[in-house]
Each structure stands twice: as C-alpha cells, then as structure tokens.
Specification:
By secondary structure, the protein is α/β, with parallel strands linked by helices. The protein has helices at 4-27, 132-161; strands spanning 34-37, 41-43, 48-49, 52-55, 59-61, 64-65, 69-72, 76-78, 83-84, 88-91, 95-97, 102-103, 107-110, 114-116, 121-122, 126-129. Strands 1-4-7-10-13-16 form a 6-stranded parallel β-sheet, with no helix packed on it.
Length: 169
C-alpha cells in the first residue's frame, strides 16, 4: 500500500492554506509598538507607530499612530499633523490637542486635564475624571480596603491561636 497520494494531498492542502492566508498577512498594516519607562516617546512627522505605552513619561505625536496611546504619570501631546487611529488614555496626566489633529477613538483622562483646540477632531467619546479625588478613589481607596482586610485576618488568626485561659478554681 502506497502513502504517496496521502502525502500529496496533505502537501497540496498546506500549500493552499498558505496561499490563502499570505495576502491577508501582507495586507495588514503594521508598525512597531513602543513601551517606555521614564523617557518620552516621540513620533516624528511622516513616522508611523503601533501601540504606545509610557510609564512615568509623556508621548508626543507629530506623525501617525495606528493603535492606542496610554500613559501612566505622563501626558499625551498631539501636535500639528499628528493622528491617532485608536484611543488616547492617561492616568495622572493630561491630553493636549493642537490645531487640526485627529483622534479616531476615545479620549479618557484620569486625574488630569484636556486642552483642545477647536479645530481638533475626536471620533469617539471624551471622558475626563479631573482632579485628585479620582486618583484617591482609583488607587488609595482599594489599597486601604485591602489593608483593613489583612488587618482583620491577622486579628482573627491571633484570636484563634490564643491559648484558652484556665477557669479560675
């Protein structure tokens, strides 16, 4: 019994699958993603970038961002000619939109401000939780609840482990 027809079938099916999926892979636009800590991310004019994430730094966009921009402890500055296809989100930072710029997704700011030129465009929703009270609610309050819970568990364990006092005779 020959296995040659079976091997030919598997090879042909694999080749057909690769030929079907290859154009989709080449057609997808891709640009490098950047994650930075402590050093600003700058997208220059005529430059494309993917997803941008910044911890303790800011993102300055003069080019084209194909994905989302997220900062923790920094700001998003969209300068003339800049465009973000996804969302812009900042925690403990602000968003500044200059003349003629565009964000196709949502803009969300926790603990900061949005400064926006009237000619700028935002395609999605704008949410601003400005002021320090939101930072307290988001970060400090859950940590306080966790601390109280741990304190209660420690108190409960100590109480259960305490030796029973002998009854006075």
């Amino acid at each position: 019994m020959s296995h040659r027809p079976w091997k030919l079938f598997v090879f042909s099916a694999s080749l057909l699958l690769c030929m079907t999926l290859a154009p989709a892979a080449f057609a997808a636009r891709s640009a490098p993603d950047h994650t930075q800590t402590g050093s600003d991310i700058i997208v220059a004019p005529n430059e494309e970038a993917g997803e941008l994430t910044c911890f303790g730094c800011s993102v300055r966009v003069r080019g084209h961002v194909l994905g989302d921009v997220t900062t923790f402890g920094g700001s998003v500055l969209l300068e003339e000619g800049g465009q973000i296809d996804g969302d812009a989100t900042t925690f403990a930072g602000g968003v500044r939109l200059e003349k003629g710029v565009q964000i196709k997704g949502d803009v969300t700011v926790f603990g900061g401000r949005i400064r926006r030129d009237p000619s700028s465009t935002i395609g999605g929703e704008v949410t601003n939780f400005g002021g320090g009270i939101w930072m307290i609610l988001i970060f400090v309050l859950p940590l306080a609840v966790l601390g109280l819970f741990i304190t209660f568990i420690v108190w409960l364990i100590r109480r259960l482990m305490r030796p029973a006092l002998a009854a006075a005779a």
